[in-house]
Write a structure and sequence with these properties.
Blueprint: H1 4-12, E1 24-25, E2 29-33, H2 36-43, E3 49-54, H3 74-88, E4 89-99, H4 113-125, E5 128-136, H5 145-150, E6 159-166, H6 184-192, E7 197-198, E8 204-205, E9 221-223, H7 232-240, H8 252-261, E10 267-270, H9 277-284, E11 288-293, H10 296-302
Parallel strand pairs: 2-11, 3-4, 3-10, 5-9, 10-11
Antiparallel strand pairs: 1-2, 4-6, 5-6, 7-8
């Protein structure tokens, strides 16, 4: 068994000792309190990270407990992190950023900050946009309430952008790591056969379409309900009077990208760790990991993810997606003023 200092330095990808003690430490990784820009400079060597998997504070108009940044200033604020991200990533490594949207104050229109962020990362820091993903949370409540529930001029905002960026146009990856079960119709096709033919769209569906590849290639829409309510982490926090992190992403989200983009033993970094979901998933999958979090209290609660009570297995059940307007009522009049005035209370 390695010493605490050896494990800490191995997790951080550097041999430089430091007096800062981790809040959480395992044989595979460590979580440190403090500003991640400073900690990356101090602890993470050049080109030593295979995957940065993170969900930074979103750029929102209304301030949250977890310290979000103003949407108008967000891109400028993010640049100091971007510089370190590019430095520490291996040429074959990836940067995955889960980021929510923001609505303009008092208006039913949206900020462009998450698009400005990805453009800045590609143009100023030479990242490549490997692919854009969309995390759909089927369990999300209707929001923003003013425009969705009250004035009824928008639908609920239930999708986060997930930017997959890389230093090279060819980061290491394999979609075979994240295959999904075949649909009932595809299973039937594999069992009963298919007549190869040219589709009206021009796609030539050859006999290779009948090959069983062990599962279906997933789309870039990730349906993952964020419904954690009684996890070991939450019980740990409640038993000790520790405030839970209010904006946790579900374990299935980092699980997907860690499986697809890293090998066992690779180094995964989360510079905005929160309750250390990324670190816990990396631990379960046998990856080395490092987490940085500015709020010490959140890391104290994150200890609950590394207790003897094991983390629940990552599961994601299928969700039915209804066609648009499945329960439409054309007799309902449109909101003629576009929601400029609040309707009278019913």
């Amino acid at each position: 068994m390695t010493s605490g200092e050896d494990a800490t330095n191995a997790a951080a990808g550097t041999d430089t000792p430091s007096v800062l003690q981790p809040t959480i430490e395992t044989l595979l990784g460590a979580a440190f309190p403090g500003d991640s820009v400073h900690l990356m400079k101090e602890r993470v060597a050049d080109e030593s990270v295979d995957l940065i998997m993170t969900s930074p504070p979103f750029g929102l108009v209304r301030k949250k407990d977890y310290g979000n940044e103003d949407a108008d200033l967000y891109v400028q604020w993010f640049e100091k992190f971007a510089h370190e991200f590019f430095r520490v990533l291996k040429p074959t490594g990836s940067l995955v950023i889960d980021i929510g949207s923001a609505w303009k104050k008092g208006l039913p229109t949206k900020s462009l900050y998450q698009y400005e962020l990805v453009i800045m990362l590609c143009r100023k820091f030479s990242f490549h946009l490997a692919q854009d993903f969309f995390w759909w949370n089927p369990a999300k409540l209707p929001s923003p309430a003013e425009w969705v529930n009250v004035r009824r001029v928008r639908v609920k905002d239930a999708v986060n952008h997930v930017w997959w960026l890389s230093r090279s146009p060819f980061p290491k990856a394999s979609n075979r790591r994240v295959l999904q079960p075949y649909s009932a119709s595809m299973t039937n096709l594999l069992e009963n056969g298919y007549t190869p033919r040219l589709r009206p769209s021009g796609h030539d569906i050859s006999g290779n379409f009948q090959r069983d590849n062990g599962g279906a290639i997933p789309p870039n829409l990730l349906a993952i309900a964020n419904t954690e309510s009684n996890s070991p982490y939450q019980r740990y926090c409640r038993d000790r009077g520790i405030k839970e992190h209010p904006a946790r992403f579900p374990a299935a989200l980092p699980d997907f990208f860690i499986r697809m983009l890293t090998d066992p033993g690779d180094h995964v970094l989360d510079p905005f760790a929160g309750s250390c979901v990324t670190g816990a998933v990396a631990e379960d999958l046998g990856r080395r990991w490092t987490c940085f979090e500015l709020d010490r209290d959140y890391l104290e609660g994150a200890k609950g993810r590394f207790t003897a009570d094991p983390n629940p297995p990552v599961k994601s059940k299928p969700y039915q997606v209804w066609p648009p307007s499945s329960a439409a009522d054309e007799a309902v009049p449109l909101v003629a003023d576009g929601g400029a005035k609040r309707p009278p209370k019913e």
